[in-house]
């Protein structure tokens, strides 16, 4: 049975959007992975990227925009999206739940950094069809996960913060079944805040 905190993620981030933005920090520990992602995007100029769970847009979306990426960001929190719209008015920002995402558009790249891992196991399994539907042939997907199958409960602003992960083998299998080949994968990368990262290309 999924931990009850899984159903409170959207409300938690909406309620504490300003706290999250303040605590997130603007240092870009993810830069090396973002550069890997950008380097293999299929379009050399004005590549299109969908940032899934974009938060308040800093620092990841900001960095991608600075690299001349045509960025669209989605987040389930209206407050987060309002902040993005204020900071980066020339980009597209949408309030959306990734689990029901259907933009009728394919992108050169998708990124779900520290967002996808808030879904429960079954919702994560279903997401690979969503990823595939929104990634063009030759496009790139990057996401973070946990290091092994299980659930983990953190704390944020005094409330329980849910995370879950499938196993490494299952992620590889589901990527493959949905048209993705793994390009790079590191478990708890010490150079990137011990994030577990997946980089894959759509066939």
Automatic annotation (TrEMBL):
A GO molecular-function descriptor: methyltransferase activity
Pfam families membership: Methyltransf_25
Entry annotated with the keyword Metal-binding: no
TM region positions: none
Keywords assigned: Methyltransferase, Transferase
GO biological process, one term: methylation
Stored CDD domains: AdoMet_MTases (cd02440)
Domain called Methyltransferase: residue spans: 49-139
SUPFAM superfamilies (UniProt xref): S-adenosyl-L-methionine-dependent methyltransferases
PANTHER family (alphabetical): TRANS-ACONITATE 2-METHYLTRANSFERASE (PTHR43861:SF1), TRANS-ACONITATE 2-METHYLTRANSFERASE-RELATED (PTHR43861)
Protein name: Class I SAM-dependent methyltransferase
Source organism (scientific name): Limnobaculum parvum
């Amino acid at each position: 049975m999924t931990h009850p905190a899984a159903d409170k993620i959207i409300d938690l981030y909406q309620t504490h959007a300003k706290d999250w933005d303040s605590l997130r920090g603007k240092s870009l520990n993810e830069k090396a992975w973002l550069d890997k992602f950008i380097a293999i995007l299929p379009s050399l100029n004005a590549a299109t990227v969908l940032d899934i769970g974009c938060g308040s847009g800093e620092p990841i979306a900001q960095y991608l925009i600075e690299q001349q990426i045509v960025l669209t960001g989605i987040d389930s929190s209206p407050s987060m999206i309002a902040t993005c719209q204020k900071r980066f008015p020339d980009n597209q920002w949408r309030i959306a739940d990734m689990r029901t995402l259907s933009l009728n558009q394919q992108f050169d790249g998708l990124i779900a950094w520290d967002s996808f891992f808030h879904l429960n196991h079954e919702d994560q399994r279903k997401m690979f069809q969503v990823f595939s539907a929104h990634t063009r042939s030759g496009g790139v997907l990057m996401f973070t996960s946990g290091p092994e199958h299980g659930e983990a409960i953190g704390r944020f602003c005094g409330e329980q913060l849910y995370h879950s992960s499938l196993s490494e083998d299952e992620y590889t299998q589901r990527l493959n079944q949905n048209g993705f080949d793994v390009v790079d994968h590191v478990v708890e990368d010490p150079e990137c805040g011990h994030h577990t990262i997946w980089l894959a290309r759509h066939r």
